[in-house]
Amino acid sequence: MFYLLSLLTGILECGWIAFGATYSLPLWRLLCYPLAYHIGNLFPKPFSLSRSTLRIMCFLSATAGFLTFAVQLSEKAVFVLTCIALSLLSAVIQSVRSGLKSDGNRLLKRVFRVGGFALAPLAAVVPSVILVLSSIFAFLALNEYEGKPDITRMIGQNGFSLVMTFHQLHYFFYAHITLAAMSLLLSHNSTLGIVYAALLFCGTWVTYMSVEPIISRLTNRILPVFYAGHLGISILLFTMHFVTSVSLFILLWLVTGFGGGVVYTISARAKAAGSYQKDSMTIAENIGHTLGLLTAVGVAAVFGSNSPQIMLVFGSVSALLAVATMALISRKENHHENIHIKG
Asked: Strand, coil or helix: what is 206?
């Protein structure tokens, strides 16, 4: 069940970008779908709900999905119902998955998630079916859920929560808006364009997943890898802002995964410094996801077709802010060590 849910998360997160591109919806509306999904990601951290509440949410998401198919509704009504269903489903699925993570292989989980991204274009064909079936699977999966209503507070982890937030912001500033823009562009050239865009997005995840297994075998040094990855992705995203060749842009887009893949160094460094706190790190990630996409939606609504280039610059700056924050943390640690030695 865990891996099936991982597959569904990939479809639910990116599927309606393909749906929107198929019908040439405005860019900001394409981005509202993954934003709705990631709002749901705020459950179960920092917000946790009871099993009964989550079951009600499953019923509501299934109802919303059914209405988008069985009832003649306006385009706006379908848009709103879909966003509601995605948020509810995300909250339920993430709540269940949080309790099952210890039983899942990390690499296999990511493989299934990427598989979901590859299957995301199915949402352009059978969107209502996916929503209803996902609601049914989520409802069944709740038998494994034992959470209770709660609010988890985030601590700063001596600055590492901020580093993680900036890291996640850099990715969510550019990732989905790039996928959406590429889906719109390629769908105009070919009916299979949205499939090609989805596969390219999967390619960025392949490069992302390759970083930790390779780099951790080559070196156990954390900070140099962190700095190299974030400075590199900052330069790369800023360069992509100027690229006009589609082929070159696609190549650079695939390379961006290498920069995102150094995320493991943040938790590793926090653990080495004795500052790591799992729940706070998760909440910092979720804040970065939501704020990054919310910013992308706002910029897309105001600047339209120019917004992907703007968000690349935002991503570049955010990666630099992650570097600056980590440097300040390291400087503070060194200062305390020097005082301790002198004392």
From this structure: helix
